[in-house]
Amino acid sequence: MENILVAGANGTTGKQIVNLLNASQYFKPIAMVRKAEQKKQFEAENIETVLADLEEDLNHVFDNNKTIDKVLFAAGSGGKNVFKVDQDGAKRLIDASKANNIKKFVMLSSMGADKPEEANKLHDYLKAKHNADEYLKSSGLNYSIVRPGTLTNNAAEHKIKLEESLNEHGEISRADVAQTLVKVLNDDTANKATFEIIKGHTLIGEALNKFSTVVY
């Protein structure tokens, strides 16, 4: 069983990710939270937690949890501090992950992060995500970058549309995004891959088969 550090565990999508990992026979979540009071909900479920702020040094996360195997970044500032959290916070966690020989870094990005200059309303957010994604690609770490369309709180459909570039906009439930992120944690899935997802008609596992590759 592999230990997965989840950055942004207290977020709407992050909580679903942690629950999926906690129910998995392959993965064990370590919930990374920013405030001490956020630890209680996870500890009540016997889920290990670590207190860390993406705007500060993160090396203690790995010093105290030397058994972390992979990292899943699902954190976000909610548009308040996109360059400090979504960009620099991600870079800080990437650096710490590399220093501690993490096997895989899964990034929750956003559709449009490949061309932030074309965005109107979310330019700064997408630019921050773009910079974080590019930093991860050049880090030398094994990675998966998942770029969903507009997030909804609808129930999981367990089906998606997936391409490296969809060339169309759409929405997708946080539940299906969470399932996709957990599935790409597998060693043989989406290694050094970047792709976009929206709701669709193909089962998530089947859609990911096109990115089943060699293990790095």
Description:
With 216 residues, this protein is of the alpha/beta class. The protein has one domain (2-211): Rossmann fold (3-Layer(aba) Sandwich). It contains seven helices and eleven strands. It has helices spanning 12-23, 39-43, 59-63, 82-99, 123-137, 174-183, 204-207, and strands at residues 2-7, 27-33, 48-51, 68-73, 104-108, 143-148, 150-152, 159-163, 171-173, 193-199, 202-203. It has a nine-stranded mixed β-sheet with strand order 3-2-1-4-5-6-10-8-11, with helices on both faces. Helix 1 (12-23) links the parallel strand 1 and strand 2. The radius of gyration is 16 Å and the shape is globular. The two termini are 18 Å apart.
Number of separate domains = 1
The biggest sheet, with number of strands, parallel, antiparallel or mixed sense and barrel status, is:
9 strands, mixed
Lateral arrangement of strands in the main beta sheet: 3-2-1-4-5-6-10-8-11
CATH fold type: Rossmann fold
**Which structural class should the secondary elements be placed in?**
alpha/beta
The average pLDDT is: 91
Any idea of the CATH class?
A: Alpha Beta
At the fourth level of CATH, the homologous superfamily is: NAD(P)-binding Rossmann-like Domain
Regions with little confidence, pLDDT below 50 for 5+ residues: none
How many strands in all?
A: 11
